[in-house]
């Protein structure tokens, strides 16, 4: 329910006005039921109403754009915007390993040294500055809300939870965007219940 990659898929489903049911997955003890659907062993995985199963947030969003062409497009068709948006997805995905290290440390799953922790904080803050240079003063990374913005938003939510310091410009940009009712729904609320746990 709290995976940043899942948030990206929720962002797409919300913008597209597609209804969905959210199943939560126990990643600490992956069940046969989950692995039968997602042998890749990672979330998100989506099962469409016709039984199509697809995993990886980027693949799911790309699939939704093509399967439901009359809905809001999360990845632009114009090749230059598309390239820019996918660059941001790759850039933010590249920041996750440091985030995961801090997450596992915080949860006492895998402790890391203070030096490693400081390095992870530094890497993340520095990369957030690169994103600031791109996004500061622009409402969106390209000309409207896309997968690029959803990717940066999920990252800010994760960094806030990990108490990673980063520039105020992106913080404010994220806070403003998340106030939008539709965009805000990408983040699973604390009170939201999944329909099933597997
Ligand atoms: N590239 C994948 C990454 C998905 C991913 O790493 N998901 C994490 C949760 S945030 C996961 O399922 N981890 C479980 C594991 O690696 O065992 C995507 O975009 O969907």
Characterise this structure.
With 198 residues, this protein is mostly helical. The chain has two domains: 81 residues, 3-Layer(aba) Sandwich (Glutaredoxin), CATH 3.40.30.10; 106 residues, Glutathione S-transferase Yfyf (Class Pi), Chain A, domain 2 (Up-down Bundle), CATH 1.20.1050. It has nine helices and four strands. The strands form two sheets. It has a two-stranded parallel ribbon with strand order 1-4. The protein has a two-stranded antiparallel sheet with strand order 2-3. Bound molecules: glutathione (GSH). The site of glutathione has 11 residues, from α1 and α3.
What's the quick description here?
The protein has 198 residues and is mainly α. The protein has helices at 4-15, 32-37, 57-67, 79-93, 96-106, 114-135, 147-161, 168-178, 181-184; strands spanning 23-24, 45-47, 53-55, 196-197. Residues 3-5, 27, 41-44, 56-58 line the site of glutathione (GSH).
- Taken as a percent bin, the fraction of beta residues is 5-15%
Number of continuous helical runs: 9
Number of strands: 4
Radius of gyration from CA coordinates = 17 Å
* Shape assignment: globular
Number of domains: 2
Distance between the termini: 12 Å
- CATH A-level architecture of the largest domain: Up-down Bundle
Q: Describe the strand arrangement of the main beta sheet, using strand numbers.
A: 1-4
User: Unreliable stretches, pLDDT < 50, 5 or more residues?
Assistant: none
Bound molecules: glutathione
Assigned CATH class of the largest domain = Mainly Alpha
What name is given to the CATH topology of the largest domain? Glutathione S-transferase Yfyf (Class Pi), Chain A, domain 2
User: Biggest sheet, open or closed, and with what strands and sense?
Assistant: 2 strands, parallel
Output the structural class: mainly alpha
**Which whole number gives the mean pLDDT?**
94
Helix residue percentage: 40-55%
């Amino acid at each position: 329910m709290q995976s940043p990659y899942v948030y990206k898929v929720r962002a797409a489903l919300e913008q597209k006005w597609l209804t969905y049911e959210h199943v939560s997955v126990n990643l600490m003890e992956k069940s046969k039921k989950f692995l039968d659907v997602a042998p890749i062993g990672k979330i998100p995985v989506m099962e469409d109403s016709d039984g199509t199963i697809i995993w990886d947030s980027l693949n799911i969003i790309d699939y939704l754009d093509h399967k439901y062409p009359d809905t809001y497009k999360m990845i632009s068709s114009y090749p230059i915007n598309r390239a820019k948006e996918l660059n941001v997805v790759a850039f933010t995905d590249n920041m996750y390993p440091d985030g995961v290290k801090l997450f596992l440390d915080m949860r006492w799953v895998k402790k890391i040294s203070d030096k490693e922790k400081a390095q992870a904080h530094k890497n993340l803050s520095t990369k957030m500055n690169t994103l600031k240079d791109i996004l500061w003063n622009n409402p969106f990374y390209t000309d409207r809300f896309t997968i690029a913005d959803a990717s940066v938003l999920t990252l800010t939510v994760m960094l806030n939870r990990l108490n990673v310091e980063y520039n105020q410009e992106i913080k404010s940009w994220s806070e403003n965007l998340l106030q939008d009712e539709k965009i805000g729904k990408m983040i699973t609320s604390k009170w939201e219940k999944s329909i099933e746990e597997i």
